[in-house]
Design brief:
This protein has about 475 residues and is α/β, with parallel strands linked by helices. The protein has two domains: about 1-150, 3-Layer(aba) Sandwich (Leucine Aminopeptidase, subunit E, domain 1), CATH 3.40.220; about 170-480, 3-Layer(aba) Sandwich (Aminopeptidase). The protein is built from 14 helices and 20 strands. The strands form four sheets. Strands 7, 8, 9, 10, 11, 14, 15, 16 and 18 form a nine-stranded mixed sheet that branches. Helix 12 (about 385-395) links the parallel strand 15 (about 375-380) and strand 16 (about 400-405). Helix 4 packs parallel to helix 5 (about 160-180), helix 5 packs antiparallel against helix 9 (about 280-295) and helix 12 packs across helix 14. The longest helix is centred in the middle third of the chain and has 22 residues, at about 160-180. The two termini are about 30 Å apart. Bound molecules: ligand BES, manganese (II) ion and zinc ion. The site of ligand BES has 16 residues, from helix 11. Zinc ion binds near residues 256, 338 and 339.
Amino acid sequence: MNFELKTFDLSGAANEKCDALIVLLGSSFKPGKDVLSVMAAQAFKAGDLESAPGKPGKPLVLYRLAGVACSRAVLASVGDGSAKEVRQAVAAAVAAVKSTQVKKLVLCFATLPQEDAVRAAVMAVAEASYVFTTTKSKPEGRAIQRVIVGLPSAPKFKPVFDQVVAAVAGMEFAKEWANRPANHATPTLLAGAARSLAKLPHIKCEVLGPKEVAKLEMGSFMAVAQGSEEPLRFIVLRYDGTVKSEAPTVLVGKGITFDSGGISIKPAAEMDEMKFDMSGAASVLGVFRALAELKPAINVIGLIPSCENLLNGRAVKPGDVVTSMSGQTIEILNTDAEGRLVLCDALTYAERFKPRAVVDIATLTGACVVALGAVRSGLFCANEELAAALLTAGDTSLDLCWRMPLDDDYAEGLKSNFADVANVGGRAGGAITAAKFLQRFTGKFPWAHLDIAGTAWKSGAAKGATGRPVALLLEYLLTSAK
Ligand code: BES
Ligand code: MN
Ligand code: ZN
């Protein structure tokens, strides 16, 4: 999908040739004499468009309006123009014209929006028109190919527009890989996706296999991988946007391409959803995709430990003790707590880059889904500055997170009689004990952990990946560049 930014008012919008025209009307809208204004004013007056703030209401679809070049015009009220209302209104308006052959869409703000409303609008068009086709035999892709966003004054919005367009491309890259079933997204195929990114500007990719990983003594990562016939991959991506002397930010993404639980096997219901267990990895790939487009003057490293968590005759067993790359021994009491086992070795590997910060992204715990649901990702961070930067980035990019505690008392349950640490505590505070486990491997750099188990995908009828938290991470990285 191609996005363009243009300056026009409602009379300009009426002249645009396209397949559908969406007009966003805020409660501060002052109608002019042009045909769209007149229609909108009448519709508000008749009560056919909601005008109260906080109530975006239903879009009004008009067909072959005299004086409007586009055959389908959709009037959509956006209340007081908040990001949330714009998002809802655009989603509903796109849905209203989605069934038709709409290839070129014009989205026009009748009143000057806030920056976050522009972000929301672009994200909502992408979201509402997204279709996954890779594993359909007769793919019917998205109809919308071109989207023109019209504003009363475009130049001022160019930076935020470019950023959200890149974020959307990154989110869709992440969605593609997260949505793929595990047999179409093995660790090897995921590494191929990372390698394909290395064709883009400033990006390099290196992929380590079982031999190299054994040489690095990543005993914890290898323990998870040993229950599957699929060989593990350790993916190292670099985005070099500035001088080598500039310390990089390292992103570490959990890349479990399927999580059966291992010997501590999961129940059958909804086990298919564990194909999304590489959403953290997918978000890292998505961020690199966006960086290549925006080319900011920063350095970023992406690390993805990727394998399947399956069970065969060689699979790791509850009670097994393994030695991590850090030298710490781990008693694996539950093989389903595998995310932390692959991440801890990647975190140790991150030390060699002398990073300014390390952020890991993982669908780590069901407990985080219980705590925060699908609205906010869990943020765990003992560094005040880094925590504040990530929280702000979440707010700005409309990709929210929420800070969780890291008190040492939460680590009590991780004590082991047979190793330096156990891989699980009790059930209580499960998202936090998981973070406490990871924290043991992060002494050498400022570190944050994002638990995206609740936010990376949707269950139910709309089952599918969300592309989160690509927008949050991108915003954080771009802000760090300023
Ligand atoms: N990938 C899961 C976490 C998960 C569960 C994400 C449900 C989304 C929905 C992770 O590997 C896992 O299985 N975690 C266990 C940890 C437990 C054994 C301590 C969990 O949350 O149940
Ligand atoms: Mn698991
Ligand atoms: Zn998992």
